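Troubleshooting: if your tokenizer reports a length mismatch, compare your output against this known-good record of 152 residues.
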Amino acid sequence: MYQSIITGAAFVICTITDIRHRKVYKRTAVLYFLLVAVGQAAGLVFEFIEKGAKQAGMSVAVLAAGLIPGIVCFVVSWISRQELGYGDSILIMICGFSLGFWPCMWILFTALFWSAIWALILLCRRLERRREFPFVPFLLIGYVIQSAGGGG
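Known-good structure output:
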């Protein structure tokens, strides 16, 4: 529950800054990461105490797997010269660390779907083809749908 609240708050804050300034501020991402890391570390300590080292070790592997979607997005950001911004990729990485691999993938695919719909609307309105738009609001939409029980 703690991780979900932190993730939701981070997505709301970053949505506002992404819409207004077209960027995700580093200090927001660092604060989000630190809060998530503290929560995950506490969870691992409690799991180690309750279930032992083997189960805690498996949990570390699960946490690491949650980073994969963000790492892939970060590589895409680098290859595309930030067509998908580094800030977006870092948020996706922290989201995966916070919520896990499959919830993060669901949020990411939902965000990609709704951003594609938005891009089609912009194309139909005959706006410029190379128009940038913020991606974090679509991550927020994916998060809200996933949190409401509509995803993974």
